[in-house]
Specification:
The chain is of the alpha/beta class. Helices cover 33% and strands 30% of the residues. The chain folds into 3 domains: 7-70 and 90-148 and 250-315, FAD/NAD(P)-binding domain (3-Layer(bba) Sandwich), CATH 3.50.50; 150-246, Alpha-Beta Plaits, CATH 3.30.70; 317-384. Strands 1, 2, 8, 9, 10, 11 and 17 form a 7-stranded mixed beta sheet that branches. A 7-stranded mixed beta sheet has the order 6-5-13-14-15-12-16.
Length: 385
């Protein structure tokens, strides 16, 4: 008889994708022994993940329910030409909720926090303290890594969660306020009102490069708050990030560069909305997909996840084409015009776009009308792909 592995499934990285996979397995396959290794001191890091309620199936919404800290019945966008309100449910999950859910679901002996990983193999992981954990399957959830096979733009942001001296007066989030001065590509401010006197204010950029001048952006957040008439009493929390935006690439070549037998999950498998960068809906969907696999051996999960990621990439070519227009055709200081036209379209079309469920008619509608980018240059860029 062989020696029993330490666990059936070992998740390397304790962020959003790994956390949701662990929770989906605990819910749907409680007999499976799941372990999770995270280099940080807490699962989930320091993040807020948002989505529209229509992005998730009923089953997905149930899986995500305990992670959702804030819900709103409507939201708004602002552009120089108009302000618009959408009667669409919006919600935000938090790192704190994810950490608490994982602590409740995973036994202490299979939770490893504050432990970096030195080497990953299909059936074992070497930790930095030289311990070896063995597993029937190893899944790599350590996030997006540079790849010569993916052509990416970047959505980067700095956010301040603040307490205000007086109520901000918002009934729901401002998903995009693009009435601000444009810097470093397409700039907008994103505001989530958590209570009548607290809010997360994020200054966000669709930019060609990943460089983040944190101090300068913090000053812009503070200036934006002042321009809204909001006086910041104190900063409760800060977060920042640089998210990929998919423009072009060869997903098969990208996945082929990753170690065979170790399933890449989450951002590592390019599972995020190509245009918005939202990763929460994809993480929920992948977690349920894995939990329903009939074979949870390492090779089977690896094959299934790579096929799943390839299918999603192939389905989303239209969104990458739009990104080509945004990043390769529109002048950086005028990229806001592309988004201003899009958000003026039918509200249900916008909702399907966020959910990655655009219909053929949606795609035709998005591309028809007066183009907000030079037409012939756009055609050349699309044909080049």
């Amino acid at each position: 008889m062989g020696v029993q592995a330490d666990c059936d499934i070992l998740l390397v990285g304790g962020g959003l994708s790994a956390g949701l996979i662990a929770l989906a397995l605990a819910r749907h396959r409680p007999e499976v022994r799941v372990a999770i290794v995270e280099a940080g001191e807490r699962f989930g890091g320091n993040h807020t993940w948002s989505s529209f309620e229509t992005d998730l199936s009923p089953e997905g919404a149930e899986l995500a329910r305990t992670l959702i800290a804030h819900r709103w019945a409507d939201n708004a966008i602002r552009f120089p030409a108009y302000e618009r309100h959408f009667a669409a449910g919006y919600q935000s999950a938090t790192s704190e909720r994810l950490h608490a859910a994982l602590v409740a679901a995973i036994p202490p002996e299979r939770r490893f926090l504050g432990v970096p990983v030195e080497h990953v193999a299909p059936d074992r992981v070497l930790l930095a303290d030289q311990r070896v954990l063995t597993a029937g399957a190893v899944l790599d959830a350590r996030g997006q890594r540079p790849s010569p096979h993916l052509d990416l733009g970047f959505q980067k942001f700095v956010g301040l969660e603040v307490e205000l001296a007086a109520p901000h007066g918002l009934s729901g989030p401002i998903i995009m306020d693009a009435t601000v001065d444009q810097h470093d590509g397409y700039r907008f401010v994103y505001t989530l009102p958590f209570s009548e006197r607290t809010a997360l204010i994020e200054d966000t950029y669709y930019a060609d490069g990943p460089a983040l001048d944190r101090a300068a952006i913090v000053r812009r957040v503070e200036a934006y708050a002042a321009a809204q008439g909001w006086r910041i009493v104190r900063v409760l929390r800060e977060e920042d990030g640089v998210l990929p935006i998919a423009i072009d690439g060869d997903i098969r070549a990208h996945l082929a560069c990753l170690p065979e037998g170790v399933a890449p999950v989450g951002m590592a498998a390019a599972l995020f909305h190509p245009v918005t960068g939202y990763s929460f809906p994809d993480a929920v969907r992948l977690a349920l997909f894995i939990a329903k696999l009939p074979d949870l051996s390492g090779p089977a999960i690896d094959r299934a996840v790579r096929a799943y990621a390839t299918d999603r990439w192939d389905e989303r070519g239209f969104y990458r084409m739009l990104n080509k227009m945004l990043f390769r055709v529109a002048e950086p200081a005028k990229r806001w015009r592309v988004l201003q036209r899009f958000y003026g379209l039918d509200a249900k079309l916008v909702a399907r776009f966020y959910a990655s469920h655009s219909t053929v008619f949606d795609k035709v509608r998005i591309l028809t009308g007066k183009p907000p980018v030079p037409f012939f240059r756009a055609v050349r860029e699309v044909m080049r792909g």
